[in-house]
């Protein structure tokens, strides 16, 4: 492999932001879900993400974008993360700002770099197939496509967005499974999701994006020129400690808060500039307690998943999930698909069916001023 090959120019970016409000009260502003071990592996989701990416880009070529409040925890989890690759947000401005700034910084340092963005809080089981998909995506990106990795659906899930593949293959050297993307589809209702899965041309949108940094920035500029201008100005000041702080204070709060799906993925798909690599590996974004229960019970709805190092749970004819961070004894008798999350200062009780509605509790706590438990 020559020094100029696509994989040698590859740089991983891990956006480690967001609160994970559907996992409250386990996930909090000061301890978001990527800093938790949610699978019983003994590692946080962030650490698992790092370990998944180091065989692809090496530990010196991974950049983490996170909030200032999380710097110490992130660096404790990732001792090999070099200081120059820690990008701190003063406040969350959504994924375009996070990924776009990383791309702009890396393009200034290394023109022609290929960047891949991978969320810090996803669970992926089959590392070999994941790495193969990323390698294909890097070759696709080198050919000039904004590229994503879509997950082959295993069920008609309503908690994920979908990618609709075009009929034709992209025919990219080094990426034999690449297909062009026709469109992105928002989270569907169950009957629509069933149609998507039966159709066979829809993939789950896993939010992974791989592209040449210059082309990613160009796509942002086509659709949000003011946002791009702010990101480029920040990148120009970033590597000088004397100019970085003032630039962040001046520019960051004014950046538009918008997801990269809307600034890059959807317009690139509409213009025929977006390709997708199908991913044939188990994947979950751990979006709510229903998915967490499934992850920790082997997919068996009849089982009760229990998380917590010192959990004290007595159960009879019950299923669902219990997350315990207290020493309290929790007894369950004859309840199905239950969700119990017991922390020292907050208790959540719901069901798997209503797990997506936990976010509304967080919104209500904000409105009532109960921010001490957020």
Features:
4-stranded mixed sheet, 17 strands, alpha/beta, 11 helices, 374 residues, 34% helix, globular
Indicate the topology.
Elements: E1 10-16, H1 45-57, E2 62-67, H2 71-77, E3 86-89, H3 94-109, E4 114-117, E5 123-124, H4 127-142, E6 146-151, E7 162-169, E8 179-185, H5 190-199, E9 202-212, H6 213-223, H7 225-238, H8 241-251, H9 260-270, E10 274-279, E11 283-284, H10 289-295, E12 304-307, E13 312-316, E14 320-324, E15 329-333, E16 338-342, E17 347-351, H11 358-368
Parallel strand pairs: 1-2, 1-4, 2-3, 6-10, 12-14, 13-15, 14-16
Antiparallel strand pairs: 4-9, 5-11, 6-9, 7-8, 7-9, 8-10, 16-17
Describe the overall structure.
It contains eleven helices and 17 strands. The strands form four sheets. A five-stranded mixed β-barrel has the order 6-9-7-8-10, surrounded by four helices. The chain has a four-stranded mixed sheet with strand order 12-14-16-17, with helices on one face. α1 (45-57) links the parallel β1 (10-16) and β2 (62-67). It has helices at residues 45-57, 71-77, 94-109, 127-142, 190-199, 213-223, 225-238, 241-251, 260-270, 289-295, 358-368, and strands at 10-16, 62-67, 86-89, 114-117, 123-124, 146-151, 162-169, 179-185, 202-212, 274-279, 283-284, 304-307, 312-316, 320-324, 329-333, 338-342, 347-351. α7 runs antiparallel to α8 (241-251). By secondary structure, the chain is of the alpha/beta class. The longest helix is centred in the N-terminal third of the chain and has 16 residues, at 94-109.
